[in-house]
Records
---
Amino acid sequence: MPTQRKRATIKEVAARSGVSVATVSNVLQNKSHLYSPETAERVWQVVRELGYRPSSVARSLIRQRTDTIGVVLEERQNVVLDPYVMAVLEGILEYTVPRNFPVKIISLLYQQEPDSFLAHLDDGSVDGVLLIAPRTHSRALQWAQQSDVPAVVVGSTVPDTPLTCVDVDDTSAVHRAVQWLIDLGHGRIGHVAGPQTQWSARRRLRAYQRAMQEAGIEPRPEWVAEGQYTPPSGKAAMEHLLCRAPELTAVVCGNDWMAMGVIEAVYQKGLRIPDDISLVGFDDIDSAQWFTPPLTTIRQPMRHIGIKGAELLLEQMEGGRRGREVTLFPAELVIRQSVSEPKR
């Protein structure tokens, strides 16, 4: 019968790392002001080698904390299907798991009562909250703004809020993409917008409109259709555009997932991409390069947004809630085969 492996202790981690037990404890608690980056790297290396796991129960009792992070998903976000949510969540876990901060997923998708999720936030089970792309009238966002629990918004830049936000500079990115299409010769450009209950969708729509107007092109109302950041809604929106505005030679989508539906609508109409209609997406999800044709899109660092959001939240959990801070990552236009000069 195999012998049970003895659990490593914090004293063993300290001895092998060449530091004190207090220093190991500070590294595990992410008190970065008390040690150097080199020390942290050495300690984490030993932690991985020994498979050390501090007792979460004992730590919670001593510190009167759970060190658990709540990740709040809105009612339309499906963590399994939505590639954006999955990428951001991957970044969150990449940062929190090695530091022994458990993550509690709080999804509004299956909540029967609109406010029932508050019980999962107010029951003392989480010491900090990450809100992934909250909507404009989000109850979770309202709760976070009024609560003393540290909270960070990821995937959205919410105006008029005291909360720290981590997002992509989508305004500049969409403006740049539309201007690039105009420089290629496209003057009749449509936009499949995301749901206007999302701050990101509102910003991207305004950026599209501003780029067109600055080029002396007044975007017509029939050149814009709203989707829900999903493939079926993208298809429906594009069918609407093809019916009301057949003159369009290019379309900019609010995200890649809707662009998938747009491609289906174009092909069902007997048209071709990019010969008849050029197409630009947003996100650069993993499958974008495998679309037919490969999708020109705006790449945003979704995983890094999750990492940064988790980092800032842990800093708040250790040092206390602080004033609003906004971190915007730059975006990159990735040119593939879904765009060409207009043929008509």
---
Amino acid sequence: MAGALDGIRILDISTALTGPYPAALLADQGADVIKVERPGLGDLARWVGVAVNGVSALFQSCNRGKRSIALDMATPEGLAIVRELAARSDVVIQNMRPGVADRLGIGWDDLSEGRDDLVYISLSGFGQTGPYAQRGAYDTVIQAYAGLGTNQSDPDDGTPVFLRQTAADKITAMYAVQAITAALFARERGMGGQHVELSMADSVVSFLWADAAGNEMMMDSDGSMNSSFVQGSKPFRFSDGFGIATPTSDADFHGMCEALGVDGHDDPRVATIGERRKHPELSGEIMTKCHLAAGAFTCEQISQRMEALKVPFALVVDPKDLPNDPHAKAIGMFEEFDHPVAGRVRQPRHPARFLGTPATLQTVSPMLGEHTDEILIELGRGEDVEQLRSGSIVF
């Protein structure tokens, strides 16, 4: 069966993660994605992090299933090719600093001229306008500005802590996927194409404020509670590992206490979530008892007890162990395949399970310029390939 986006063509002229990752997810869903890269260096993601035979894990994750053309957009002929590719595309994705795409001649006004069906998304750090628009904006910059650093700060001295992943990039990528498909849906309803602007700062603030800025959102709050309602969560230390329980409902709370063999939870002052909110000190004492009691159990023992009482619970699993976890294996969470250059590769499956238009994990990321000739032939420029290559326009 065809994917949900079968027949949709995407031109990816973005780099790193924020733009390439959503394009890869859309490729899983059936879109034909052409990636434009600069000659020689290519996408910077090719050179970041763990790599095998020149193929980085980051590039593989964010560019699987795409076709790569390497060309010099600074040349008139190179620019003409990009415009031809855009004219054949439904979606264009770029994450250049505001104004750069316009100066290159591949901005919204340039590529939408003469057509009303193009979906064009401009991704940026701080947005297209405002005093910070021209700032360089890598992931940690946005984590600092948008509140993730503060949200993760050390509870003892307040030192900001940054997530050990490019969280701001990935959060923005998720919003980008939704924005692109929403714009395509609007087009299908006869509303035409459009220019979509999405900043990392807006994305992360929106993401954070959903559950971690309570006092900042509720302006009449007395500030007695922490803005993040999961601030106090900490793992249990068992005799041979760690785990976490999330006792939100009354049944969860009492089940957790019972599983850990902790008494005192029959006190009417902690019987319901409302009463526990009124008596945080007593609730805290019981949680302390739970953490002290945890050391008497193995991970296997506590898993059985928590599951029997239907308590929301999980052991803390190292990423290296997750592919062999029985649940992950049972649902086929990971797929393994042979990459022609990088060797054996394991990747998570596409997360959404489309039962009518299945998404298929695209496995191989392209080598730099691997599909240059193929793409030029599709454009009707097959006879020009050698001339373009000898003129250092394509590679």
---
Amino acid sequence: MTTATSAVTSTGPMRGIRIVDFSIALTGPYAAALLSDQGASVVKVERPGFGDIARWIGVSVGGMSALFQTCNRGKRSIALDLNSEQGRDIARQLIDQADVVIQNFRPGVMDKLGLGYDTVRGDRTDLIYVSLSGFGPTGPYATKGAYDTVIQAYGGLGASQADIETGEPRFLQQVAADKITAMYAVQAITAALFARERGDHGQHVELSMLDSVVSFLWADAAGNEVMLDSDLSMPSSFTGSFKPFRFADGWGICTPTSDADFAGMCRALDVDGYDDPRVAGIVARRSNAALVNEIMLRVRAAAATMTTAEVMARFEAHNVPAGVVLSPAALSSDAHVQAIGLLEDSVHPTAGRLRQPRHPAQFSGTPAALSGGAPTLGQHTDELLGELGCDATAIAALRTSGAVS
């Protein structure tokens, strides 16, 4: 078990990259946290007294929420009043030292503060400035509020998860739109840094949650919308009919996509009919959905009489892709999860014991690592001001004025 706030000597591929993170909640902060895992040095700018709203959402121990810890690990926090000229001046100094700036306020907010891209880049041709928003900087929805569920609704996630029988939309019970956007943001930032390394200089990267969710969804769940000449004989999402299997003591999933998968699933559970020419091949199964459904009903009925262990053993013996349904709580005791070290334990000085997934990308030459504990509000204000050249007297004066805390 490691100490979550212990200094990390980075070997990651982003080491040496300096990021100033003005973002709040999940999208920008999570993107910056992933880059921090990869070695980037991240300064988180928060408002005095309250900080990032993520500090106050969800499960919390010792004043540290799980959401804030996950999305802000390894960062240094400075509390700045961006409504004061002194606070804005310090922000500009931090930006002057940065490679990347990340912000996720509504379009125009940073410009009004004098911290927008056109203002702060000055002669910094190498600055990469990332603006994240709900609907993008233009169009009739540009200034519309955009919480995750709003984007899940507009972007199609709610409709894609709709109940097949009633058509009632269902939302993923997680902040999916934010996390999808964060991952696109990480890729975009890395791409912009790569372009800069090749001599293309810095640039302004604009990314909306709506763009991200639609791009993510349309890869596999908008078939009829992609193929405009479709006869509409199949649903847009080919995974829409996938349902969990009920076992005698739990739940699982089997996805018989290939011919071998389908035949293996039936053989594993002693269900006949899989060699019928009408269902033996994937093309035939597309044309005989009723017969496939009848066979699947018998498969599910057979699975319901067996334990999870028995069904999984049978599927493994017939090389059928399948898995058990695990909760996050149950995941830590899974043999594979333990064998690969997927979850890492650490101790945070205020939140206590933590368990978090390791950084997902495994780099053989420049390994990434969880970058430590999330900071308390303004924990590094004095340290960062000192790096900007402020002495104790100047720092005290800034605190007295309320520009920092």
---
Amino acid sequence: MKESLLGKTPSEMKEIALAAGLPAFAGKQLSEWMYGRRVHSFDGMTNLSKVGREVLKRRYELGVAEPAGVAESADGTRKYLFPVTCPVGGAWEASCVEAVVIPDADRRTLCVSSQAGCKMGCRFCMTGRQGFHGNLSAAQILNQFIAIPESGELTNAVFMGMGEPLDNFDEVMRAITVLTADWGFAWSPKRITLSTIGVLPKLRRYLDECKCHLAVSVHNPFPDERASLMPVQKAWPLRDVVDLIRQYDFTGQRRVSFEYTMFAGFNDDKRHADALVRLFSGLECRVNLIRFHRIPDFPYETSPDAVMMRFRDRLAAHGVTTTIRSSRGEDILAACGLLAGRHQQDMI
């Protein structure tokens, strides 16, 4: 399998250019073609010699691959399906991942995947039910930005798609570097949010090395109840995650939010709201309440709107900034992993 140029830094591009018999400055030209102009073929790199382009073709691929399918919602949300091949246990495994474009007024947010499947095993997550099929490379992550028709319209990105981003730390950070570097997409870190269930060893590195926003999946403030949904609670307790976050400054441009999916009769009463108030006391943060998209063989439904509003108002009354996130794309297998899971079954 050929190595991809997508995801390479300018210094790496320079070495690639020299090895192909091109001048050193061709490395900068390669970066411009990949990230500035987002070219889809070597033939489009018209300021490189034809001989050099042929050498590059033999040795590398760009890493840009069109989606295999798309589902469009009545509300304008689009979910793209990308076939991927990932290394797993010394072998290569074919799978597929999703990327979702969410329009909202003048914003176009891309929800991007970082893994094929997931190891974390959250009971309410379709991606986790698929098992783990490999880490995406930086090229496969960035391809979700480049290969879609809305590529030039994107205003924001959230690493909230398939997989746990911090479980694929190095490739996710390489992708974020390309997105935020002056020689790359030149995005402000404020345009990017990474969502995690709380992988503590890598979370500290992320907070030390990256200025992008952070979102943490909570879903229940009580350890035993959270563990019944999220096995990660046993390895990295939520309290330890919040204690780590308290060591960092979120009063400036970088923000932290806590994601809380509402399950009727399980985590939506006064007791849970008051526990969240205690957990986040004194922390500059936001809580996002999320309607649950029903998945097969899971016992809970989403909380009624009236319950969610009471829950929001109780948190807000105690000084915790809280919003109810709009539900999007319910008519196109909205829960993350449903479309990819169906396609995966068709491949078997």
